[in-house]
Design goal:
53 residues; mainly alpha
Amino acid sequence: MEQLIVRPEIAVNQFLPIFIESTLVLIFGVAYVAVITLSKMRYFSKKWMPKTY
């Protein structure tokens, strides 16, 4: 007999805020990694590294 796994569904009225927050996390994460990487590659000065935090 197969086990049935029941997951809670995302409420329809909460989908847009969750989607926007997830998108912002991805965008800010990519921007953070880009600034740190470009600073280490010396495209930016090292003074930008602490400002990304």
